[in-house]
Amino acid sequence: MAQRFRGFLPVVVDVETGGFNPDTDALLEIAMVTLRMDDEGYIHPDQTLSAEVHPFDGANLEQEALDFTGIDPFDPERDAEFEIDVLTNMFQVVRREIKHYGCNRAVLVGHNAHFDHAFLRAAIERNDIKRDPFHPFSSFDTASIAAIALGQTVLAKSCITAGLDFDNSAAHSAAYDTWKTAELFCFIVNRYKDLGGWPLAIEPGVQLD
């Protein structure tokens, strides 16, 4: 895994939020999916980490965003946790996976990854978390990768084009969207391998004319 991604461990992340501004709008759900590599070098979705999150003090909640996700932040049956607890627990698992694969740090994989990364970074800063296992600005965006590999950018259409099941009624749940994004990422990486794109045909250090 470390050799395949230049020392990075891909970890798929999806968030559901109370708006589009990571500094002011609530983080309401977050999910992460770790990946594993088999003996033949193919990657697969592995462990799912997911949590519902209490809006931080003073967080903005846009009704349009809540209508879109179907989340009621104040539902008494919602099993929500505080941001600091959610991220601390998830980061422990991510750091363990980094060590297991001999990687240097994690890199966020997301569909329109900038959005998820921005909300994750804002929550990290808000809670003064010092041991962030993720690269601070690099990410792998499956919307961009799918545009190249499949001619699609929407998650549902990308999955269907790749022959992966997609349940629209389950979409916009962080756990479901993260798992489907992980399946999509693995499909594209593995397909590239099957087409001869990995390992590299050119050995490191060889100069091209």
What are the key terms here?
magnesium; RNase_T; EC 3.1.13.-; tRNA processing; 6 helices; alpha/beta; 209 residues
Radius of gyration from CA coordinates: 18 Å
Count of helical stretches: 6
- Roughly how many Å apart are the termini? 30 Å
- The succession of helices and strands, N to C, reads EEEHEHEHEHHH
Mean pLDDT comes to 94
Would you identify the regions where 5 or more consecutive residues have pLDDT less than 50?
none
Helix proportion:
25-40%
Strand content: 15-25%
Q: What structural class do helix, strand and pairing data support?
A: alpha/beta
Say how many strands there are: 6
Strand order of the largest sheet: 4-3-2-1-5-6
Specify the biggest β-sheet: 6 strands, mixed
Shape: globular
Cofactor: Mg(2+)
EC number: 3.1.13.-
Family: Belongs to the RNase T family.
InterPro entries: Ribonucl_H (IPR013520), RNase_T (IPR005987), RNaseH-like_sf (IPR012337), RNaseH_sf (IPR036397)
Short description:
This protein has 209 residues and is an alpha/beta fold.
Protein model, in words:
Keywords: Exonuclease, Hydrolase, Magnesium, Metal-binding, Nuclease, tRNA processing. The record marks 20, 68, 115, 137 as: Important for substrate binding and specificity. This is Ribonuclease T. Its EC number is 3.1.13.-. Residues 9-194 form the Exonuclease domain. With 209 residues, the chain is of the alpha/beta class. It is built from 6 helices and 6 strands, in the order βββαβαβαβααα. The chain has helices spanning 63-69, 83-101, 113-126, 142-150, 155-161, 174-194; strands at 8-17, 27-37, 43-53, 80-81, 105-110, 134-141. The chain has a 6-stranded mixed beta sheet. Strand 5 (105-110), helix 3 and strand 6 (134-141) form a beta-alpha-beta unit. Helix 4 packs across helix 6. The radius of gyration is 18 Å and the shape is globular. The relative contact order is 0.18. The mean pLDDT is 94.
